[in-house]
Amino acid sequence: MKSSSNHSQQPVAASPSAIDVVVREVGLRDGLQLVPYTVSTEVKLAWLRAEAAAGVSHFEVSSFVSKRVMPQFADAEIVAAEAIKMPQLNAGALALNGRGAERAIEAGVHTLIYVISASQTHSGGNAGRDTDQALGEFRQIMARVRELPSNERPQVLAGVATAFGCTLEGRIEPTRVRELMSAMAEEGPDTMALADTVGYAHPSQVRQLCQQVMADIGSLPLGVHLHDTRGLGLANAYAALEAGVTAFDSALGGLGGCPFAPGASGNIATEDLVHMLEAEGLRTGVDLDRLLEVRRQLPEWLPDVELRGALALAGPPDWSPAQRPASA
Amino acid sequence: MKSSSNHSQQPVAASPSAIDVVVREVGLRDGLQLVPYTVSTEVKLAWLRAEAAAGVSHFEVSSFVSKRVMPQFADAEIVAAEAIKMPQLNAGALALNGRGAERAIEAGVHTLIYVISASQTHSGGNAGRDTDQALGEFRQIMARVRELPSNERPQVLAGVATAFGCTLEGRIEPTRVRELMSAMAEEGPDTMALADTVGYAHPSQVRQLCQQVMADIGSLPLGVHLHDTRGLGLANAYAALEAGVTAFDSALGGLGGCPFAPGASGNIATEDLVHMLEAEGLRTGVDLDRLLEVRRQLPEWLPDVELRGALALAGPPDWSPAQRPASA
Questions:
Q1: Which band of pLDDT confidence, cut at 50, 70 and 90, is reported for residue A219?
Q2: Would you call A207 an interface residue with chain B, using a CB distance cutoff of 8 Å?
Q3: Closest Cα of chain B to A274: distance in Å?
Q4: I want to staple A54 with a disulfide (CB 3.0 to 4.6 A). Which of A88, A291, B235, B243 is the partner?
Q5: Has this prediction a pTM greater than 0.90?
Q6: What pLDDT is recorded for position A271?
Q7: Of B170, B238, B264, the CB nearest to A314
Q8: Distance from the Cα of residue B88 to its chain's centroid
Q9: Is B258 a catalytic residue?
Q10: From CA A60, how far away is CA B80, in angstroms rounded?
């Protein structure tokens, strides 16, 4: 049984007024999906603690999916139980159906993440149900969340995957994505997100769809989850920033990747994202030098996994913050 | 002696009305600077022909520098002589002083490229003179160019290097960059460029400085030369695009790099740039599939050279142009 104290550690960001944008580390979930061996709970928690100590406050720590299908996340309960005890950390976990959501609620995660794929084909493969069935499931989950006592109620992050195109279906109609986002918004999630699951998005497409969705969903904060498969991850993040997006998913070392594109990068690299955001004059709350120290530990924690990202090789520009060029 | 027919192959782009942005391949100059062996003239010309056949129309084919200092470009005259004979191709070459400019003029290049570094320290190391001396040299070169008969007169591309920061000096004052660009503009070059020589730029900085410089130099076309050292190359290119920039330097396979940052990428990869621009709905004149075929030949032409770029690994999105999402 989880205690109500799990949630007393919120508010999530230590001092929300001290940061301008949220960097949400998804390496422990999205990033581990393609690692070809099971990473130990000990390593996951060491990574989580080290990156949190560098100032990253939002994490997707695991996925409450079938342990048979995804043995990588068989320790989801254990990881979540430790994560929610860490100070000033928002521990989120993914659920793809009601059973997963129930496990996440029981585990006491701060944020329950639920994603619907706009692509029927992708939805079928990923969640075992079509898009409308997934929306129905979301409505049931939200009904369940709303009936929880407030001290047991997680925040809900609701998103649409393959929002900018799909390797299986090609073009995804923006109107369909907007319909899904609006339908989810009606259920009262706390934050929302658009995901470029396969790295098909280009900058003006991201800016336009983000602007449209933000107009649709009103005051709900919008984030983006961008894969860098075709090198446009940071350009797309910048376009989202221009649209007013204030939350960005990323994975340390650009983990993620696609099994069908060997060597292609996965998520945007957290260290490269933080560098861009800070260079743009936005406070992330992250200490970039300490984050790069954590990045240097990744090869020990994840042997034989190809890591990406430019900053880990080149280092940050060698000027003090006082020397930093003024942003527009 | 060069014949006046060298220039009769201009106008440079086969059908300027058919392209919206100029992609200028600098792999044969910037990209070869750090290759640790001398590339044969035969290989250079094979690459040039193949990439031109894929629709790239603007090339920086060599550098008229001291053969002793840069043996890589000892064949500059031979490469230029062949390049200017290729149909519908604008062959440009770099010169760092009056002697180099004279050789470029004699060789009959379509475009003479002259760059001043805004960083005194970098200018001293790169060109053997400080910034003001380099500006004086540019004025002399322009006086020489203006006195040439029109059929022997190259176009001139004048640029400022380390325009967004310098590894040696840190911050570079935007006002200094604007002064230099304006002083060069007064001499009547045909196009101008701003270079992020060391990969220090961030997107809003690029957009802002490009906008300011465009206001300063009036109707002169402005291009950008962006290194991807810290992963921001394409984000910066997108920001330049937003500012109204219509010419972009890049190197096939992301060649270039920095000797002090092993593995860090150099210029933005031509194939990734073309993909972004075309996805944005802009016509580059380049056939991306054919360009990727040329990219696949690079490892044969340049053995043991590390190549970068996402698209070569992941491939372009699998949708027809008709399916392509509408741009904003």
A1: very high
A2: yes
A3: 11
A4: A291
A5: yes
A6: 98
A7: B264
A8: 17
A9: yes
A10: 55
